[in-house]
């Protein structure tokens, strides 16, 4: 029996048939937009290394919130930069802290879903994601503080708190704390598979959270003792599994593009929404390459984001969300 020649180009010969036959697509529903609110400034300031992204004053949030709503972005991920820092990150759980005040403002003025970053690195004088003792990061003492941070963010209106410290037991501690305080409806999006990556550079400058070298704390080795090695492939799946058992509602893989294999394995292994963070370095590389004329910015962002969706992410945290929403409107 003779079989007819297979000509897959017949499925690519026109834009309409390409639209009909593709099985992965991008929409505005796929994006969460990160915003930075900073204490002590009166007008927005562009962040060095993150073109098109800004530190925003508390009283200047309406502009970006309105823009997100008008473009149809479902929600924002809120980061705060405090005016003062100390060794235990006290501003992170202060009811009048910058994120807490911003959270109340956001919930009062918009319908956006509010995710808050739940960590200490922006708030500690040493830049680490927890409190230090005996030359290293004290996991269990840090959990007690992270629980307080999460509760304070829930009180301020967070719909989801997002623990990003990669500490053992952080989801369990936060989930128990929220439930005990009557915030059972507040969800947890855990940075479950967060790698010790070189792609965080622009963010660390934006959040003023670069870890400092601490005398007598050589055991820390940067953040390698709590963030995962980029050589790990099975460990991130164990981390996700543990976070699910501890009560996570959404799990995250961060960064996204260098870890598409982890996104794929997680999507095939677990029945839970998976977010992926296209981090600052990924964003900045496309911006810089497009600025120099070697790639097209729109095409590069759409291609990279499509690859993240194709790998299995349910939604993507990206600094390009507003631009992509405009491009989708134009298409």
From TrEMBL:
Q: Which UniProt keywords apply?
A: Heme biosynthesis, Lyase, Magnesium, Metal-binding, Porphyrin biosynthesis, Zinc
List the Pfam families.
Answer: ALAD
Which residues participate in Mg(2+) binding? 239
Annotated 5-aminolevulinate 1 binding lies at 204, 223
Source taxon at top rank: Archaea
Query: What does the record give as EC number?
Result: 4.2.1.24
Query: Could you name the active-site residues?
Result: 194, 254
In the UniProt record, does the keyword rRNA-binding occur?
Answer: no
Top-level class of the enzyme under EC nomenclature: lyase
Q: What is this protein called?
A: Delta-aminolevulinic acid dehydratase
According to the entry, what is the taxonomic lineage of the organism?
Answer: Archaea, Methanobacteriati, Methanobacteriota, candidate division MSBL1
């Amino acid at each position: 029996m003779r079989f007819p020649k297979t000509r897959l180009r017949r499925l690519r010969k026109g834009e309409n048939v390409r639209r009909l036959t593709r099985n992965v697509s991008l929409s505005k529903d796929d994006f969460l937009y990160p915003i930075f609110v900073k204490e002590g400034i009166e007008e927005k300031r562009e962040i060095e290394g993150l073109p098109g992204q800004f530190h925003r004053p508390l009283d200047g949030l309406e502009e970006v919130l309105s823009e997100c709503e008008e473009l149809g972005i479902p929600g924002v991920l809120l980061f705060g930069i405090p005016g003062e820092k100390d060794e235990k990150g006290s501003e992170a759980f202060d009811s009048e802290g910058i994120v807490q005040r911003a959270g109340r403002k956001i919930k009062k003025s918009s319908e956006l879903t509010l995710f808050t970053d739940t960590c200490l690195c922006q708030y500690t004088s040493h830049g680490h994601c927890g409190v230090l003792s005996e030359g290293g990061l004290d996991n269990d003492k840090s959990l007690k503080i992270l629980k307080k941070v999460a509760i304070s963010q829930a009180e301020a209106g967070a719909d989801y708190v997002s623990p990003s410290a990669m500490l053992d037991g952080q989801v369990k501690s936060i989930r128990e704390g929220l439930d005990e305080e009557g915030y059972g409806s507040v969800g947890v999006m855990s940075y479950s598979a967060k790698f010790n990556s070189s792609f965080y550079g622009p963010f660390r400058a934006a959040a003023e959270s670069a870890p400092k070298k601490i005398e007598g704390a050589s055991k820390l080795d940067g953040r390698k003792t709590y963030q995962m090695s980029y050589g790990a492939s099975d460990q991130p799946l164990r981390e996700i599994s543990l976070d699910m058992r501890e009560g996570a509602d959404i799990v995250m893989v961060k960064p996204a593009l260098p870890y598409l294999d982890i996104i794929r394995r997680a999507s095939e292994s677990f029945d839970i929404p998976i977010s992926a963070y296209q981090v600052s370095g990924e964003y900045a590389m496309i911006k810089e390459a497009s600025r120099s004329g070697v790639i097209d910015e729109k095409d590069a962002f759409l291609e990279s984001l499509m690859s993240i969706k194709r790998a299995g992410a349910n939604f993507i945290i990206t600094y390009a969300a507003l631009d992509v929403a405009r491009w989708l409107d134009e298409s």
